[in-house]
Amino acid sequence: MTELVHLTVESLDHEGRGVAHRDGKAVFVEGGLPGERVVARIVKSKKNYEFAEVDSVLRQSSMREAPRCRHFGVCGGCSMQHLDLDGQIAAKQRVLEDDLWHIGRVKPETMLASIRGPAWEYRSKARLSVRNVVKKGGVLVGFHERKSSFVADMDSCEVLPRRISALLRPLRELIGALSIRDRLPQIELAIGESTDAMVLRILEPLTPGDEQLLTEFADRHHIQFWLQTKGPDTAYPLHPPTPAALEYTIPEFGIAMPFMPTDFTQVNHQINRLLVRRAIELLEPHPAERIADYFCGLGNFTLPIARSGAFVFGVEGNAGLVERARANARHNRLADRTEFAVANLFEADTAVQFGSFDKALIDPPREGAMELVKALPEPLPRRIVYVSCNPATLARDAGVLCHTKGFRLAAAGVANMFPHTSHVESIALFVK
After folding, report:
1. Contact of 75 with 69, CB cutoff 8 Å
2. Looking at residue 1, what is its pLDDT?
């Protein structure tokens, strides 16, 4: 029989779970909020900790909200819809501060105001799983269930644009009618400002009948269908055969950024605009300065920095992205203020080959930039703006910059790039 226990939730952990204690053990309580008194069901017990789920709330937090999505709790796409936005942002800021101190042993001199934007219909990129599940009536299209490899049985999503959410049920029916319904495991969504693309990952060729069904669907719902047979670089358009370019903009800096549907772009265009603005404010670029943009991708930060008049040197490990960054610089008439290079920034001393810079921006993947920050050549940049999608690796790298490179952590703050999830996007300023 499942054990029910009374708990007082003390805080939230890095995954948005409540944290309580009993009998000397930490209890991670799915669905619990700080300050709440709950009846919880123990679902897993280990020597030093337990996992539990809320059965009922005896004393409710003032931050608790009714989840908007009816699939919340089953779908693993969101974990914090039961917590109001102010509470979500406060929790993420606490994660950032805790990691900076406990991992990097640093504290920011200033905590920046959080960057926030729309809470719903914000996702411009998403990866949906597809499974043909006979027991559930056919094809499922959606995110994975919470803590499971199963696909959630969903026909709407509150964080996708409404027009895309409305296509989940028609997509299930469409894929169910294809000959390769069992060989199509994934759909990648890429939302531009004037057109929407769906990349179908296919493990077998389409039949002519399949192509006809997809063409009719694309025309009816005004989307692009692309096919991907192997890695992201194998994606090619099915219909229309010459699709309109996907593009996002950063109007404040006069930047229009074309991208391929499998390219990495931020999932939240509006927060990205505010994040770019914050980065430029912190970096303070000036004409005649030479600035590095490490992990530059398509040039998301490179081109706005170049718009200030500075010369920007972008470095990225993916050769395809570098080519598109160069094309985007030409598209925005900034080729004379930019240069790009392909290099593996996870290798020791890679940064040395490019020389020193007046300032730098670092925007690494989740792994962080340990080898880069250790190898920054002298004279070191006067300012470094570090944009992070993982507060733990930011904190680790901050420790290197502050304790061995002579920087101080002048400021740090969070950007609510993924509302209703525990994902923490942040930005930090290091000054020599």
Report:
1. yes
2. 55
Class of domain 1-64: mainly beta
Write out pLDDT tens, residues 389-414: 999 999 999 999 999 999 999 999 99
Residue 156's nearest CA partner among 144, 169, 170, 145 is 169
| Residue 62: alpha-carbon gap to chain centroid | 28
Q: Cα dihedral sign for 63, 68, 70, 72?
A: negative
Please list, in sequence order, all residues whose beta carbon lies within 8 angstroms of the beta carbon of residue 265, skipping any fewer than 6 positions away: 124, 125, 190, 248, 257, 259, 272, 297, 298, 300
Q: Are 427 and 389 in contact (CB under 8 A)?
A: no
Beta bridge partners of 151: 144
The token pair that represents 248 in the structure block: 């996002």
Long-range CB contacts (< 8 A, 24+ apart) of 52-58?
52/5, 52/7, 52/20, 52/27, 52/28, 53/29, 54/18, 54/29, 54/30, 55/4, 58/6
Measured distance CA(72)–CA(62) in Å, rounded? 20
Average pLDDT estimate for 127-149: 94
Closest C-alpha to 235, from 246, 249, 219 = 246
Q: Which fold has domain 90-118+247-431?
A: Rossmann fold (3.40.50)
Instruction: Give the active site residues.
Output: 389
The span from the CA of 362 to the CA of 369, in Å, is 8
Q: What are the angstrom distances between the C-alpha of 276 and each of 230, 252, 391? A: 33, 10, 18
CB 318 within 8 A of CB 346: no
For 315-334, write each residue's pLDDT tens digit. Answer: 999 999 999 999 999 999 99
**Helix intervals (H) in 57-113:** 85-102
Domain 125-191+196-244, what architecture?
Beta Barrel (2.40)
List Cβ neighbours of 228 (8 Å cut-off, separation of 6 or more). Answer: 188, 199, 200, 201, 202, 234, 235, 236, 262
In the chain, CATH 2.40.50.1070 covers 125-191+196-244
Task: For residues 91 and 61, give the distance between their C-alpha atoms in angstroms, rounded to a whole number.
Answer: 14
Residue 199 and residue 218 in contact, taking contact as beta carbons nearer than 8 Å = no
CB 92 within 8 A of CB 419: no
The boundaries of every CATH 2.40.50.140 domain in the chain are 1-64
Which amino acid, residue 121? E
Contact 144, 76 (CB under 8 A): yes
Q: How many whole angstroms separate alpha carbon 184 and alpha carbon 122?
A: 26
